[in-house]
């Protein structure tokens, strides 16, 4: 079966949703998000003064405390690793959106609040991001609409019914909506700039969508715009900065994923993606929902993995997720899915998944099996590795 839960999560690691999840030095790193606080019987922010780090080969977890200019407790932000730093942008802070950008050094665990220049994005949450060279790119999100950069009228301005504390934004209007802007942040110059793309196939504004970058192509799927959760798929060519709508050559809607938000999209290889879970068009939890998006032929194909999930033997809490995180690894065809709600968000205090779900479409390579053996019996192998002076292998084993 391609899906499995290899290890339980220890009690000191809080189950969560709306968190940042990245993969770095053979480790899954989690930051921020929501959890169900048993002491208050309410949803609470997970403290953002720490990183929870998971070794998928041994099942071990550790917590690293952060120092420096610590972020406020946060969810719905985005993050990616560039040059040994985890850059975290935006999100929801105490029911208000943020436009702050932090850099977390993954060697010293020192946090810096960056002073940036240029076309600074408006405060926003539920966006997506990726990296390209020394630049971090962010797309879309749910954000404040007034007094910020606009391109080709991309905003759909709405008066939202949510209660935001307008004083956080000083004199800005409490007018919020969905965005389809693309920004880049240059980590060398600490400068934001609005990226002007060809608008011929520009995606409509959206939030709670997902994206993945493979080579010079970025794929974006779904998300919410107004009252609709979408199932459209776009490709952005990072060299020509042109968008393309991708559609399968079929009219069989039953063989396509339904519209959704709060899902994940992950690469399996250079021509296949894993689409997992989310919140459906009617606000329902998408059960036993996973798809392979296949570009290997000239015709786009969707392959439904529902039978694999139904026959996996996994519990409802282990396999049904929304507002979760997903990280692809250095192993081709491997994805780790962390956290997320195991029921619709419209239920009072829906349960959170306590496990990391692993997807593999092929066996691990021999050298990774050897690495697992070494990690699980490190006390025995460590003196041998040190005597051979293999510092690179020790760094890999120790992670961060």
Please characterize this protein's 3D structure:
The chain is mainly beta and 400 residues long. The chain has 2 domains: 3-12 and 96-362, Kelch-type beta propeller (Neuraminidase, 6 Propeller); 369-400, no CATH class. 10% of the residues lie in helices and 41% in strands. The protein has helices at 306-310, 316-319, 366-376, 378-387, 391-398; strands at residues 3-8, 20-24, 27-31, 34-37, 42-45, 50-54, 61-65, 67-68, 78-82, 85-89, 92-93, 96-97, 101-105, 110-113, 117-118, 124-125, 128-132, 135-144, 156-158, 176-186, 191-194, 210-214, 217-225, 228-237, 242-246, 260-261, 264-269, 272-276, 279-280, 290-294, 301-304, 325-328, 334-338, 355-360. Strands 15, 16, 17, 18, 19, 20 and 21 form a 7-stranded mixed β-sheet that branches. A 5-stranded mixed β-sheet has the order 8-14-13-10-9, with no helix packed on it. Strand 13 and strand 14 form a beta hairpin. The two termini are 30 Å apart.
């Amino acid at each position: 079966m391609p899906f499995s839960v290899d290890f339980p999560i220890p009690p000191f690691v809080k189950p969560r949703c709306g968190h940042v999840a990245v993969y770095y030095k053979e480790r899954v790193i989690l930051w921020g998000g929501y959890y169900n606080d048993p002491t208050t019987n309410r949803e609470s922010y997970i403290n953002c003064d720490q990183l929870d780090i998971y070794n998928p080969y041994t099942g071990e977890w550790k917590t690293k405390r952060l120092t420096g200019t610590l972020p406020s407790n946060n969810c719905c932000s985005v993050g990616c690793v560039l040059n040994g730093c985890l850059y975290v942008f935006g999100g929801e802070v105490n029911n208000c959106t943020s436009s702050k950008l932090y850099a977390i050094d993954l060697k010293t665990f020192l946090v810096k609040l960056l002073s940036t220049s240029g076309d600074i994005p408006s405060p926003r949450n539920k966006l997506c991001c990726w990296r390209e060279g020394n630049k971090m790119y962010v797309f879309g999100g749910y954000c404040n609409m007034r007094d910020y950069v606009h391109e080709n009228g991309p905003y759909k301005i709405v008066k939202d019914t949510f209660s935001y504390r307008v004083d956080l934004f000083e004199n800005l209007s409490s007018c919020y909506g969905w965005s389809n802007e693309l920004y880049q942040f240059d980590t060398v110059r600490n400068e934001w700039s609005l990226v002007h793309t060809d608008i011929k196939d520009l995606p409509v504004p959206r939030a709670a969508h997902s994206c993945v970058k493979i080579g010079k192509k970025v794929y974006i799927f779904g998300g919410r715009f107004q009252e609709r959760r979408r199932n459209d798929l776009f490709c952005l060519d990072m060299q020509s900065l042109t968008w393309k709508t991708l559609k399968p050559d079929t009219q069989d809607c039953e063989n396509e994923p339904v519209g959704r938000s709060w899902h994940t999209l992950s690469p399996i290889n250079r021509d296949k993606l894993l689409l997992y879970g989310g919140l459906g068009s009617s606000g329902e939890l998408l059960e036993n929902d996973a798809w392979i998006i296949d570009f290997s032929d000239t015709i786009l194909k969707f392959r439904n993995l529902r039978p694999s999930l139904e026959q996996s033997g996994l519990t409802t809490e282990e396999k049904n997720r929304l507002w979760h995180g997903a990280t692809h690894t250095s192993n081709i065809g491997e994805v780790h899915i962390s956290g997320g709600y195991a029921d619709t968000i419209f239920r009072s205090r829906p349960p959170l998944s306590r496990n990391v779900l692993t997807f593999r479409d092929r066996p691990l390579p021999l050298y990774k099996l050897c690495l697992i053996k070494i990690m699980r019996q490190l006390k025995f192998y460590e003196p041998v590795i040190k005597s051979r002076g293999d510092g690179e292998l020790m760094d890999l084993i120790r992670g961060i």
